[in-house]
UniProtKB/TrEMBL annotation, chain A:
Organism: Phytohabitans rumicis
InterPro entries listed in its UniProt record: MetI-like, MetI-like_sf
Protein name as catalogued: Sugar ABC transporter permease
Gene Ontology cellular component terms for the protein in this record: plasma membrane
Principal cellular location given in the protein's record: membrane
Lineage, highest ranks first: Bacteria, Bacillati, Actinomycetota, Actinomycetes, Micromonosporales
Record flagged with keyword Transmembrane helix: yes
TrEMBL record, chain B:
Record organism: Phytohabitans rumicis
Pfam families assigned: BPD_transp_1
Bilayer topology term: Multi-pass membrane protein
Keywords, alphabetical: Cell membrane, Membrane, Transmembrane, Transmembrane helix, Transport
Biological process per Gene Ontology, one example term: transmembrane transport
TM helices/strands, residue ranges: 7-25, 67-89, 101-122, 134-154, 175-200, 233-254
Similarity-based family: Belongs to the binding-protein-dependent transport system permease family.
Subcellular location: Cell membrane
Keyword presence, Lyase: no
Protein name: Sugar ABC transporter permease
Lineage: Bacteria, Bacillati, Actinomycetota, Actinomycetes, Micromonosporales
């Protein structure tokens, strides 16, 4: 009887998850062009597409940028989110309202955040360079210099990711019994000591999940980078996600096979971390 | 620290965090000739409504499409996910655990991969650049999340309530429809909220599956506006402000559901 209620979602998963994924793997093993899409008859190419992307000069930078983008985003999102969660956990007037306002960046469409940051970071007329100029720092070519483009997209991504970390860590704080803090105070613990000896260790399970979910989301980030820099200039902010998109859809002559191959490498990365997440979650439920 | 000091610090932190949002609004009212002023005007003095006039002239059809796609995605997501959540939470059929596992994995698949697979399929069956095609693709972002939220929520419905329905002679379907669904209102709101926001802000499916038709969503409207017209930043930012309105309204009326959704989706699976 139960499966009668599950049938729609099962069929849906087969038709709209499994089948597209299968088509994507098939794409990566064939020599596809737009013409072969319409007329059929794309020759089987085996692992040629994978060989092609592994020896592509974009491969090493894209891997490096994916790692740097992910690690830096997570480190800043998490530490800032943690600090804010601890701060807003105190009781003071307006604390609840202000915390709700912190959700706004996370709810805005990414195209909105990305285009706002693009304009704020504009070299000539951006408000960020104007502010830097006011304190005597010369203008930075945030989006047009290969040295800064990756930093720029990381800044925007950190801004977008803070609310998620704040909300999840805040809910973790709520689960810590108040008596522990009272005991620590009686023992004469300072604020710092209370954080490092009580809050931080007790938040470890929630922190692990926050970081792993953040990791899986950050690996997939595409919109922000594509809208702000399109992975440029000269691949300086290209990650696997934007590279895959550019190969498949970013040119007049699409390279679907290699694009799908890059996408499949990305999915392997995401799945590895996903399985780690599920393992940790299982262990916590025991 | 005194409570007033904390409030002051909280206000400053919030102001810093929301500065980009303020800046978007400020720029949307700035005149073209003031756009490159040095230093930039911090307030829209001599403001203009030109940007908003441009939105009304050019972007209304895109907004309409996004609204349709968003509502369609909500309907499809709730229709698929609510019965599944009920089955997983209350009927516990054999293999349900495996299905939950598949749903968790499904959430980890990067959008670009789904987009390529969908593109290949849509090209063959001819639904590229169509609203139903986009609704189907966008629903893949929300359906696994929806099932997991419904499962978590419906597990909390007391068994007595279900048994009372059975005693009254209700079958499974009737119990689901007249007992489970009404008491699950909060989770329906949470799932609908996220399904709508995700569909409304989707860019990757829009740009790969719906880049060429007559009915394009607002995310593409903004993107193409930037591409064709990177001088009129007041109009671009005015479009951005308008595109953010649903998120703002939803945040105001449903903030507790937002927090509930984030934490339930993250922790309780």
């Amino acid at each position: 009887m139960g499966w009668a209620f599950l049938a729609p979602v099962t069929l849906y998963l087969l038709a709209f998850y499994a089948y597209p994924l299968y088509r994507n793997i098939e794409l990566s093993l064939r020599e596809y062009t737009v013409r072969s899409f319409v007329q059929g008859g794309a020759p089987f190419a085996g692992l040629d597409n994978y060989r092609k992307i592994l020896s592509d000069p974009t491969f090493a930078p894209a891997l490096l940028h994916t790692v740097v983008f992910t690690v830096a985003s997570l480190a800043f999102q998490f530490s800032i989110g943690m600090a804010l969660a601890v701060f807003f956990y105190q009781h003071f007037p307006l604390s609840r309202t202000l915390r709700a306002l912190f959700l706004v960046p996370w709810l805005l469409p990414l195209i909105v955040s990305a285009s706002t940051w693009s304009w704020m970071l504009n070299s000539d007329a951006g408000v960020v360079n104007a502010a830097l100029g006011a304190v005597g720092v010369g203008p930075v070519n945030w989006l047009t210099s290969p040295d800064w483009s990756l930093v720029s997209v990381i800044i925007a991504n950190v801004w977008i990711g803070i609310p998620f970390n704040l909300v999840v860590l805040y809910s973790g704080l709520q689960a810590i019994p108040a008596t522990l803090y009272e005991a620590a105070s009686l023992d004469g613990a300072t604020g710092w000591q209370r954080f490092w000896r009580v809050t931080f260790p007790l938040l470890r399970p929630v922190s692990a999940i926050t970081l792993l979910l953040g990791l899986i989301y950050t690996l997939k980030v595409f919109d922000i980078i594509w809208i702000m820099t399109r992975g440029g200039p000269t691949d300086s902010s290209t990650t696997f996600a934007t590279w895959s998109y550019r190969l498949g859809f970013g040119n007049l002559l699409p390279a679907f096979g290699p694009g799908a191959a890059v996408g499949n490498l990305l999915i392997v990365l995401a799945l590895i971390f996903g399985l780690i997440y599920i393992r940790i979650q299982r262990r916590q439920q025991l | 620290m005194r409570r007033a000091t904390k409030t002051a610090i909280g206000l400053v932190l919030t102001a810093v965090m929301l500065f980009p949002v303020y800046w978007m609004i400020n720029v949307s009212f700035t005149r073209d000739q003031d756009m490159r002023a040095d230093p930039p005007h911090l307030f829209p003095v001599d403001g203009t409504l030109e940007g908003y006039r441009a939105v009304l002239d050019q972007q209304l059809p895109y907004l309409g499409t996004s609204l349709l796609v968003g509502l369609g995605t909500v309907a499809l997501t709730v229709a698929l996910a609510a019965p599944a959540g009920y089955a997983l939470a209350k009927l516990r059929p054999a293999g349900g655990g495996a299905l939950s596992f598949v749903l968790l994995i499904a959430q980890m698949i990067p959008g670009i991969i789904m987009a390529m697979g969908f593109y290949a399929i849509y090209l063959n069956i001819g639904v590229l650049n169509s609203i139903p095609g986009l609704i189907l693709a966008d629903s893949t972002i929300a359906v696994p999340f929806g099932v997991l939220i419904f499962t978590a929520f419906m597990s909390g419905i007391p068994e007595e309530l279900m048994q009372a329905a059975v005693v009254d002679g209700a079958g499974r379907l009737r119990t689901f429809w007249s007992v489970v669904l009404p008491v699950s209102r909060n989770s329906i709101v949470t799932v609908s909220l996220f399904a709508f926001l995700w569909a409304w802000s989707d860019f990757i499916f829009a740009s790969t599956l719906d880049g060429g038709g007559d009915h394009r969503p607002i995310t593409l409207g903004i993107y193409q506006y930037i591409g064709n017209n990177n001088q009129q930043w007041n109009a671009i930012m005015a479009t951005a402000v308008v595109a953010s309105i649903p998120a703002t309204i939803l945040l105001i009326i449903a903030q507790r559901y937002v927090a509930a959704g984030v934490t339930a989706g993250a922790i309780k699976d």
